[in-house]
Specification:
Elements: E1 4-7, H1 16-35, H2 44-51, H3 59-82, H4 84-103, H5 108-136, H6 142-170, H7 175-178, H8 180-194, H9 225-244, H10 254-276, H11 285-288, H12 290-305, H13 307-319, H14 325-353, H15 355-372, H16 383-408, H17 413-450, H18 456-464, H19 471-505, E2 511-514
Parallel strand pairs: 1-2
Length: about 525
């Protein structure tokens, strides 16, 4: 393969006969994790009307995101230590228990707590399924399974809000969580029945989570629980500060400074604990290997730039273009249509020119698309941003998938879970940072244009209320929103530029890829 070198790798995960059912289980599990990030959004009015808690309802989303993000590194290491199957089964069970508890919630506080339980299971689903995809398929076939998983996320982003609205409007909002049970139970049965992992040999190499006794007999797996707790605490403090800063309290207030200071202190403790651990949750080689470090940073920048289309584009479509919520969703869905297509076809590119070059082309094109957004006419036509989103999705499909497939192909079986989890963790943290950063940028532009504060959601509601604004006031608000979103897209372009620079300067030109035949032996 052009653009790669080879070295030894890891182990298969199931029999050829069982691969189809396992893939079906993976897609069902990924659908659970993907839908629960979007399906609740349109049911919020019914949930608040039943349980109350309007002032804290945002934690229905923030709590779930926090739990998923901070547990990704832990589950990655556990899957390398104990295998994918037990971690995936445990995560699915935990997710279903959380779903059942959410359906039985009696107030907003209990529902938020049970959403966190769901997120604890969701972290296992996301990370382990992505890792298992690399275990199941040889290098040449991995784009196919990754494209299927991408299509699940694309479908969830479009269908999730609609499904939540239908269930809340025509049944009861509790069915949003109860519907997870039959889907999850089918996935659980398929995994338990068909996923067959090879026997694990202790002491094969550093990082397996096992020790050899005298004479080569395997000892008990070593799990860095102190490191896991430190990572969890650091992530909770950091992401809480990012999610709530500028919303629940000012950025320079005591709560924000306290949370950031606590996260910094715990990060220092985490480094000390991980350096002393025999089998650290986040081993040092994650950042010492150029390929993994570069991919982590590049996909962290991807999480950052994705905030512009996913968070701000729907508001732009409604406030500036005057579209309804459903039509605004279709503008965004153009990106989710092209992303899986180019992802599935990306192997034809990276097989010729290599992983890094393919990703560079993808992020370079994405940079141009993001820079083009501020040049859209005001107010413009809906097809114009939709076309840009179609191009953006195509570019990012060429960017993300080659990096994930490439980095998974540079590590053996017993390091793949940790590596995959680190990539997903960086992307999630980037998204949280982007939401906070671009939210501040948008609010700053709005304040400058309108001479006061305000947020995009509030402005969108004002524009949607007939007769609440004069024509001149509505036009002024639309111009302000247009300018704010333009600046957000410029910020997203800066994130794309950072990813491009990282790939060109840090990532090796040829990824040290393991051969398919060798990576099937632990």
């Amino acid at each position: 393969m052009s653009g790669t070198t080879t070295r030894r790798a890891g182990a298969p995960a199931t029999t050829p006969r069982g691969r189809g059912p396992v893939v079906a289980a993976m897609m069902l599990g990924m659908a659970l994790a993907a839908l629960d990030g979007t399906v609740v959004s349109t049911a919020v009015p019914q949930i608040v009307g039943d349980l109350g808690g309007l002032s804290v309802f945002s934690w229905l989303f923030s709590g779930y995101l926090l739990a998923v993000t901070v547990t990704l590194p832990v589950y990655g290491k556990l899957s390398d230590t104990f295998g994918r199957k037990p971690v995936l089964i445990a995560g699915t069970v935990l997710f279903l228990v959380g779903s059942l508890l959410c359906a039985a919630a009696w107030d907003m506080g209990s529902l938020i707590a049970f959403r966190v339980v769901q997120g604890l299971g969701g972290g296992a689903l996301q990370g382990t399924i992505q890792t298992l995809a690399a275990d199941l398929y040889p290098l040449k076939e991995r784009p196919r399974i990754q494209a299927k998983l991408s299509s699940v996320w694309a479908t969830a982003s479009v269908a999730g809000p609609a499904a939540g609205g239908l269930l809340a409007g025509y049944a009861d909002w509790r069915w949003i969580f109860l519907i997870n049970l039959p889907v999850g139970l089918v996935a659980l049965w398929l995994i338990a029945r068909y996923l067959v992992e090879p026997g694990r040999t202790a002491g094969v190499r550093a990082g397996t989570g096992t020790r050899e006794r005298a004479g080569g007999a395997p000892g008990r797996p070593s799990v860095d629980w102190a490191g896991a707790l430190a990572i969890f605490g650091t992530g909770v403090l950091l992401l809480t500060a990012l999610v709530q800063g500028g919303v629940a309290w000012p950025w320079l207030s005591a709560p924000s400074l306290g949370l950031f200071g606590g996260a910094l202190a715990l990060a220092g403790v985490t480094v000390i604990v991980e350096r002393r651990a025999a089998e650290p949750i986040i081993p040092g080689w994650i950042w010492r290997r150029r390929t993994i470090a570069a991919v982590n940073l590049a996909l962290g920048a991807l999480g950052l730039l994705m905030v512009a289309p996913t968070v701000f584009l729907p508001t732009y479509a409604q406030a500036v273009l005057g579209l309804g919520p459903i039509a605004a969703g279709f503008v965004l869905s153009a990106m989710t249509l092209s992303w899986p297509v180019t992802a599935a076809l990306s192997n034809r590119v990276y097989n010729r020119i290599g992983f890094r070059s393919t990703a560079v082309i993808g992020i370079g094109l994405a940079l141009l698309v993001l820079l083009a957004f501020p040049f859209l006419p005001f107010p413009g036509e809906p097809w114009q941003p939709a076309l840009l989103m179609l191009l953006l999705g195509g570019a990012l499909g060429l960017f993300q998938l080659p990096l994930i497939v490439g980095v998974q192909s540079t590590v053996p079986y017993e390091e793949r879970g940790t590596t995959t989890a680190s990539v997903l963790f960086c992307r999630q943290v980037g998204q949280s940072i982007g939401a906070a950063l671009f939210g501040a940028v948008a609010n700053g532009v709005l304040a400058a244009r309108l001479g006061g504060g305000g947020d995009l959601d509030g402005l969108a509601r004002a524009l949607d209320a007939p007769g609440s604004l004069t024509d001149s006031a509505a036009d002024r608000l639309r111009h302000a929103v247009d300018a704010a979103v333009d600046y957000v897209y410029l910020g997203a372009a800066a994130a794309a530029a950072i990813a491009l620079v990282v790939l060109l300067t840090l990532a090796p030109r040829r990824f040290p890829v393991l051969t398919d035949g060798e990576e099937r032996t632990p």
